[in-house]
Each structure stands twice: as structure tokens, then as C-alpha cells.
Design goal:
43% of the residues lie in helices and 16% in strands. By secondary structure, it is of the alpha/beta class. Helix 8 (207-210) links the parallel strand 6 (188-192) and strand 7. The chain starts with a helix and ends with a helix. The structure holds pyridoxal-5'-phosphate. Residues 29-360 form the Aminotransferase class I/classII large domain.
Length: 373
């Protein structure tokens, strides 16, 4: 496989080589890189939830959800998430990625047009690639382009696919307008709420809920349990008939081992904390505003603060300098973002302290001035 070395050299020449860096336990760096938006991964109640489920059900779920991999805990999580977001029902997957593959491959057939936002998450893109319908990619947040495609289509069925909070820029999809054209054209709106659950909407119920679309029969939500909900896994929140269809046809559900009980228990506990302390959702947006001010960029409507630096080398150097100064930040380069828009990606946490913000201010001030353009 000598060609792998050739491809590796090309990657390195473009500044796109990636390395795995194990995280040290008890790392003292300030975390602005993870998706632990509500600061719950180490919350005692969440750890207890994971441990209790682990002890009761074992380390693994032992099989596919359709065989031995469904526990009472999985079903409770599904009911609780559906109730929280206002959906008729929920179905838990081993990951958000698997949930997106499931929805796109099973709700679309050869007679389906799939219209996807240009900035849709990679897992939605891969779902589009695996689905058997015709895929049309529209410019980011372009509702008119969506409407034109839906109106002019030859296919009897159509899906419109979007993130609600976009993972790289942290901006919001125009969900109300999208739903209006979806409804007018008898299509279905598939919304990935990975970055919106726990952050947007009353008490973190998500942007679909905030937009007044909860429970609409032509809206299908997907989400991950690995960000605000501090665990692992994915979920589809939709009408009962969608759940039933997925259970019977989704290959990423049927041919995948059910989510581990500890993750289910952790997600349930995180949801209980969020319900008891709904102010966490507002706090994460406030802290994102603080981070944006310190980085000299506009306040985002989400937890994601994007500081675009341009070249991948510059973004990598800036991320390394932050790290060396005790602040861990994300670094997004192509293909995660378009060429020329490599960036630092800072994620806010509801429990960032004033002292941490002081340190972040000093570090960002130095790094953003010193790293050469
Ligand atoms: C928007 C979006 N959708 C889906 C996923 C995939 O979720 P998971 O990590 O649970 O597979 C992610 C990232 O993790 C994401 O950012």
C-alpha cells in the first residue's frame, strides 16, 4: 500500500496531517475543545447514573437492540427524551452518526428527493450518500433554493436535511422558514439537533421546540447524547410510525449493538440534572458570549465560538500556543471546514468560572496577536 505514503505526503504538504493526542487524566488545562456544553460529564449524579446502570445491566448491552440489546433503561431514556423535546416517540442508537444514517437511508427511497444544506454535518452527508434517492445540495441556509427544488421536483417524496445549530460556525438554521416550505410542498424536515439540545429552547429543549415545531408530524429530529447530555449514543425523535419504521428497517439500528447501559444511565441522569437546573442552558449561551468578546468575534447563538484564522498552519500553530499556555481549544481545518477558513473552535461550557475566563482572556490576547498571519 505504497500509495498511502504518497497520500500522507500530500496531506502533510497541505498542512492537513492529523495526530491522535491522548488526553491526560486530570489535565489541568481549561477545556474549550470538548462538547461537554453543560459541564456534566463528571457531575456526581451523572457518574452515579452510569455506575448504577453498569452494575444492573453489565458493561455491554450484549446484542442488537432487536435481540438482547434493549433494556428497560433504554426504553425509559427514549420516553424521557421524547417527553422533553415534545416528540411523540424516541429511538436510541449507538451513536448520533448511526441515527443520521438510519433516518436518511430509511425515510428516502429511489423516488425521493433529498435536499441538504451545504453545511450539513458529515454524518448527514454520509446518510445522503447511502440513501437511494436523488441528492441536491443547496447553498447554506438558502430557503429559496430549497423551495425551488421542492416545487420543481419530479419525485413524489422529499426530505429536507439540516443541522439546527451548525457545528463549525455555530449559526442557526432558518427552521421556521424551512418548515413552511416543507409543509407547503408535502415534504419532511430532518433536523440534526446535536448542538442544540441542552443549549437552545426553554431549558435546553432544542431549536425545534424553540421554533414551535415540536411534535409536528413532518419533522424528524436526530441528536447525539455525547454533547450536552454528557454521555454517548444517538436518538431519533419523531412520530410513532417513524420509530416503528426505523426499528424494522434501519440497518444502523438492526445490525449494530445496542448502546452500552452505562451510557444510557449517564444520559438519563444528565437529562434529570438539566430538568432540575434548566438555567444551565442559558448559562452556556452567556459563557459563549463571554468567549466571543474575549476573542474579538460576534457572539454566537450557540455554544460554538468560531475564530477564523485562514490557513491550516496558522490555526494549528494558534491551537498549539493556546494549549502550551494551558487552554485547550479545537482546531478545524479542511475537510471539516471550507479551504481558507481554518479556525480555532472554542466551545463554551455552562460551568466556566470567572477565574478561567480571566486566564482565557490573557491567553487569547497573546496568541491571536503573536501567531503570524
Ligand atoms: C451535528 C452533528 N451530528 C451528528 C454527530 C454525530 O454524533 P455522534 O458523535 O454521537 O456519532 C455530530 C458529532 O458528534 C455532530 O456534530
Amino acid at each position: 500500500m505504497d500509495w498511502l505514503a504518497d497520500w500522507g505526503r500530500e496531506r502533510a504538504a497541505a498542512g492537513l496531517q492529523r495526530e491522535l493526542t491522548p488526553r491526560a487524566a486530570g489535565d489541568p488545562a481549561i477545556d474549550l475543545a470538548s462538547n461537554d456544553y453543560l459541564g456534566l460529564t463528571r457531575h456526581p449524579a451523572v457518574l452515579d447514573g452510569a455506575i448504577a446502570a453498569l452494575r444492573r445491566w453489565g458493561a455491554g448491552s450484549t446484542g442488537s437492540r432487536l435481540v438482547t440489546g434493549t433494556t428497560a433503561e433504554h426504553e425509559l431514556l427514549e420516553v424521557e427524551l421524547a417527553e422533553f423535546t415534545g416528540a411523540e416517540s424516541g429511538l436510541v442508537f449507538a451513536s448520533g452518526y448511526a441515527a443520521n444514517l438510519a433516518v436518511l437511508t430509511t425515510l428516502a427511497g429511489p423516488d425521493t428527493l433529498i435536499v441538504s444544506d451545504a453545511a450539513s454535518h458529515a454524518s448527514l452527508v454520509d446518510g445522503c450518500r447511502l440513501a437511494r434517492g436523488r441528492v441536491a445540495v443547496v447553498p447554506h441556509a438558502d430557503v429559496d433554493a430549497v423551495a425551488a427544488l421542492l416545487r420543481d421536483r419530479a419525485e413524489p417524496r422529499a426530505l429536507v436535511v439540516t443541522d439546527s445549530v451548525f457545528s463549525a460556525d455555530g449559526d442557526l438554521a432558518p427552521l421556521a422558514d424551512l418548515h413552511r416550505v416543507v409543509r407547503a410542498n408535502r415534504a419532511v424536515l430532518v433536523v440534526d439537533e446535536a448542538h442544540a439540545i441542552g443549549v437552545r429552547g426553554t431549558g435546553g429543549r432544542g431549536l425545534v421546540h424553540e421554533t414551535g415545531l415540536a411534535g409536528e408530524p413532518d419533522v424528524v429530529i436526530t441528536a447525539t447524547l455525547s454533547k450536552a447530555l454528557a454521555a454517548q449514543g444517538g436518538v431519533v425523535l419523531a412520530a410513532d410510525r417513524v420509530r416503528n419504521h426505523l426499528v424494522n428497517t434501519a440497518r444502523s439500528f438492526i445490525f449494530d449493538t445496542g448502546l452500552a447501559p452505562a451510557a444510557v444511565g449517564a444520559a438519563r441522569a444528565a437529562l434529570r440534572v438539566l430538568r432540575a437546573e434548566p438555567e444551565r442552558a442559558g448559562a452556556v449561551l452567556d459563557r459563549a458570549g463571554d468567549l466571543a468578546r474575549l476573542a474579538g468575534v460576534a457572539a454566537p447563538p450557540s455554544a460554538v465560538v468560531s475564530v477564523v484564522l485562514g490557513d491550516p498552519e496558522r490555526a494549528v500553530a494558534a491551537a498549539a500556543a493556546c494549549r502550551a499556555a494551558g487552554v485547550s481549544v479545537g482546531c478545524f481545518r479542511p475537510p471539516s471546514v471550507p479551504p481558507g477558513t481554518s479556525r480555532l473552535r472554542l466551545t463554551a461550557r455552562a460551568n466556566l468560572t470567572a477565574a478561567e475566563l480571566d486566564t482565557i482572556e490573557q491567553v487569547l490576547r497573546t496568541v491571536l496577536v503573536e501567531v503570524p498571519a
